[in-house]
Amino acid sequence: MAMQTQEDHGAHATVEAGHEAGPAATHEGTEHAGGHESSGLPQFDFAWWPGQILWFLIIFGIVLIFMRLFAAPKVGGTIEGREDHIAGQIADARRMKDEADAKAQQAIAEMASARAASQKVASDARAKAGAEAAARLAEEEAKLAATSAQAEARIAKARDAAMTHVASIAADTADAIVSRLTGKAVSAAELAKARG
Amino acid sequence: MAEQPAIDPMHQFMVQKLIELPSFQIGGLTFDMSITNSVTSMLAGAALLILFFALTAKGKIVPDRGQAVAEAIYNIVDRTLVTPIIGHHGKPYIPYLLGLFCTIFVLNLMGVVLSIGSLFGLTLTFTVTSQLAITGTLAVLTFFSVFILGFIKHGPKFLTLFWIPGMHPIGSALMVLIEMISYFVRPLTLALRLFGNMMGGHVVLSLFGSFVVALGIVGLSGGLATAAFIPSVLSFAMIVGLTGLELVVALLQAFVFTALATVYLNEVVNFGHGH
Prior knowledge:
heterodimer; A: 196 residues; mainly alpha; 2 domains; 4 helices; rod-shaped; B: 275 residues
């Protein structure tokens, strides 16, 4: 049919210098066609309007039903679902970060308390060891002091003994020297006087 | 010269019967339900739309390319029009506006992308949105749906839409008249804007297309006439450029129609808040 219209059109185009012949030839079945030949635009050939409009309403209606029932809810739902998903994920991540921060804070606190406890243990041990060492040292020193006191007493006794010996030796020596020089013995009283 | 194709840029807008179907009459109007080139284009456009969304709307969290395009189209209606203009109360009207946008866009686009068919006089393609009957139907349908919705939601109070408070009564009465005229002229402007844009572009494309062929044939006759190849080639360059422009117009007019429908809808949904 289209090709036939084409031929009609081609045949009339040069003769009638217009396109009206084409629709007129094809519109024989429709009653309004003849009355609009003088119209300049094919769009104003009102014979086509009712059928075209009705067809369009049917097809546009189908498209609208499709959009209402499938396309709009599906695509819109997907976009909203994605935004909810992303928002949810961000909220989750934020919550997890908060949790991790709290845990880190807690770990730092625990670390500090553990460090304090270990320092306390170490200082206690150090103090205890120091006290023990001091006690042992004191004990040893006491022992040593006792020993040295005994030794000193012994030495003093020996010196005193030695000193008494020295006096009698000196008297004997002096007696001997005097008796050799003078030829007479010296009495003990004279010796004692001489020593003064 | 008798073999030269006639330059007839209007031929592409002619409705042609492809399959004869019975017609019926209601109130003196003859509904010729035959399958025409217009009907096949509408059917192809609707099929493309349904196929596109059926294949791409997969609901994946991480979208693939097809789904990203479907979501971009949805967001043209939702995020750039409905949400900023109407707000969250506009959500229920998204399916209609999405259907409006997609239908106009796909029919516009088919007219541009497949327009090569009309170059040789063969009607392989047909720009449905260059038919005043169709743009008028869309405009009237949209306008009166919104108007009736206003009465359903707000009752007779909706008529105060035309009343501008705080004016002298005579001035106010005059304004009501002006407001009403500007309101009820809306379907006409909606219909004519889309119709005129789509028809104008296609007429110019068709004219330049005719020049390419006509001047090319003149150029073939040799001699001085060979110079006719120059305007022929220039005309072809014009077609390439204008086709790009028409692609933009196809998207823009679909967007403008939908944007205006959204603005009209906003007056109804947010009635009494915006004044």
